[in-house]
Amino acid sequence: MKAEQTITEITALFDQHGSDDYYGEPVSQLEHMLQAAMLAERAGADEETIIAAFLHDIGHLLPSDLAEDHMDDYGRVDHEKLGADWLRERGFSEKVAQLIEHHVNAKRYLTYKHPAYFSKLSEASLKTLEFQGGPMSAEEAQEFETNPYFRGILQVRGWDELAKETDLEMPPVGQYLQLCRTYLENR
Asked: Which InterPro entries does the UniProt record give (predicted)?
C-alpha cells in the first residue's frame, strides 16, 4: 500500500474520531495521541518509537458498531492488537507494531511487578484494566520480559499514562503525519 494512501486513511480516522473524548479522561483521542508522541520526541526516542507513541491507540478509532467490540464506554476490546495489525498491513515495521500491540500488556505487567503503579492509574485506566485481564501472573510477566522490544513497550506505556493533560500546547497533527509519511516512503 502506498504511503500517501495510508496517511489519507489515518487522517480520515482522525477526522472522524479524533475529537471524540478519550474514554473517561479530560482530553480527546487526538490530543492524547499527540501528547504521547510529543513526550516520546522530547525523550529523544527514535523515529519508530515516536510513531508508535503517536499511533498507539489507533485501534480505538477503527470502525465498529458491534457492542461486543467495546469495553462498555471505554473503547475497543483488543484495540492494541487491532491497531498493530492494521498498521502492519499498511507497511509499518514490526517494531512499531510490537510497541503498539503490547502497550496494554505493559499496564498489566506494571500493575503486577510494581503494585504502587496500580494506585497511580486513572479511574478509566483501572476500568479498562478489568476488561484487559487485570495484572499479569508471574508466568505472564516472565514471558513478557523476554520480548525484544520490552523496554520500548514500557516507554510507550509511560507516555500513554502521562498523555492526559488539559490545555497543553501541542504540535499540529500534520507534523506527525509527515513523520509517518516520510517513514513509509523510505521503507
From this structure: HD/PDEase_dom (IPR003607), HD_domain (IPR006674), HDIG_dom (IPR006675), OP_Dioxygenase (IPR052567), Phosphonate_degrad-assoc (IPR017670)
